[in-house]
Amino acid sequence: MNGRGIAAIALIIGIVVGFSIGWFAPALLPPAPAPSLVAQIQARGSLYVGTSSDWPPFEIYNTTTDQYEGFDIDLCEMIAAHLGVTVTWFDMDFDALPAACIAGTIDMIAAAMFVTPERAEQLAHSVPYIRTNQVVVVKGNSTLTITDLEDLEGYTVGVQSGTVEDLDLTDLVDAGVGINLVRYARADIMLADLEAGGLDATYVDEPVFTVYSGIYFLKTIYTYPAPPTALFCRWENPDLLQEINIVILNAFADGTMDALIAQWFG
Amino acid sequence: MLQAPDLPSIFFYIIFHGLPITLILTAHGLIWGFLIGLLLALMRVYGTREIEWVAIAYEKVFRGIPLLVLIFLFAFGVPGLFWFIDPLYRTLAAVILSLALRSGAYQSQILRGAILSVNPGQQLAARALGMSRLQAFRYVVMPQALRMALPSWSNEYAVVIKDTTFASAVGIIEMLRVTFRVVANNPEMLFPPLVILAIIYLIFTYPITRFFGERQTQKLKDLGLGG
User: Fold this and answer.
1) What pTM was estimated for this model as a whole?
2) For chain B, which end, N or C, has fewer CB atoms within 10 Å of the first or last residue's CB respectively?
C-alpha cells in the first residue's frame, strides 16, 4: 500500500473518530444547568428578558431617552425588583423569540405574546394579564366591509409573521379561502405598505391600530377578541414561572396592574 | 440620544449606536475567516488529494448555506454550543462563528487563486538557493500572494460588512436594528432612516473597495504582478 492510501485511510478514521467524539462530547462536557433558574438569575444579578421593540404601547425602545418603555417593560421591571435583580433586554425579531427562549439565551419573553395551544406546547405561560382585540384595519377611505374573515377572499392582506393573526389567516388560506396573504417582520413597515396602497387590509392587534391611527388615516372594519396575553418562560423552570405569577397576581390584587393598564392604554 | 428626528441627528444616532457593533462583527468575521481561508487554501494547494477533498467539501457546504440559516442554527439550534460563554454574548458568538465560517469558505478561494498566481519558478529558485519548502513559502510566495489577494479581499470585506445586518434578527443591536428603533419611534417617517442607513453602508464600503480594488490593482500591474 502506498503512502497516499495510508493517508486516505488515516483521514477517514480520523474523521469518523472526530465526529464520534463530537457526538458524545455534549453528554460528557457541560454539567446539566443548576436546578433552580431563579437562583441562577439572582447569582448573576440580572433577568434576561427577550422582547421585540416595535410594538407600542407594549414595548418600544425610546430613542430620545435611550430606554425601553411600555407596559411589558414596566411589568418585567416589577418582576426583576421582586427577585432583587435588574433586567437585561434582548431585542430581537418577534418570531425568533420562542427559539431564543427554548435555547436558553433568554429567561423569559415579554412581547405582548398571546397564549395559544401551539405556543403552550413549546413554552410555559404566566397568568394572562391583559386581553386585547384583533382588528382588520383598512385605509380610512376604503369601501371594503366584511362580516367574517372569510370575506377577505380575493384581497391582499398583511399580517406580522408569527403572530396569532398570521396563524388565523394561514389556517383560512390552507382551508382554501383565496386570501393573498403577505407576511411582514415588522408592524411599522406593514402599515406603511397599507398606506402606500400595497395592501387592501391588515389584521393586527388593536393597540397597534390605536398607535398608527394617529399617523395614518385608518379605520377598523372587523373586531375579534384576541387570545389572552401572557409572559412566557420554559416549562423546565417552574420556579421562575411561579415568581412571575406571584408578581402579576399581587399587581392585580393591589391595583398596580390597573394603574399600569390605565397608564399605557388609557 | 436622538435629539430630534431630523436627518443629520438620525445619521449620527445610527453611527454612534450601531456602528461599533457592526465593525466588531465585520472585523471578527474577516480575521477568523482569513485564518480559516488560509488553512483551506494551503490544504488545497499543497495538500494531498484527500486533504484537498476535505477543503473542497468544506467550501461547498458553507458556500451553500444561507447566512441567516447558519446564524439561527448556531444561535438557537444548538443550545449547548456556547455553554462556556455567558448567555449575554452567546448570540454574538454565534453570529461571529457564522460570519467566520462562511467568509472562510470564500476567502480560501481568494487566497488559493493568489497563491497559484505566484510563478512556480520562484518557488523552484528559492529551493535552489537552499531554502526549505516552508521558508520558500514564507519568504517568497506568501508576501506576493497576500498583496495579490488584496483587491478581491476588499470585495470580501464589503460582503461581510453588509451581511452583519443579519445579526439584527437574533437580537444584536447593530445598525439595522438601531435604524428600526428610530423608525418605531417616528412611524411617520419610514424611508428616510432606511435611506440614511444605505448611505452609511455605502460610505463604509465604496472608498475601501475603490482604494483596494482599483488603486491596488493598478499598483500590482505596475509591479508586473497579477492582472
Assistant:
1) 0.83
2) C
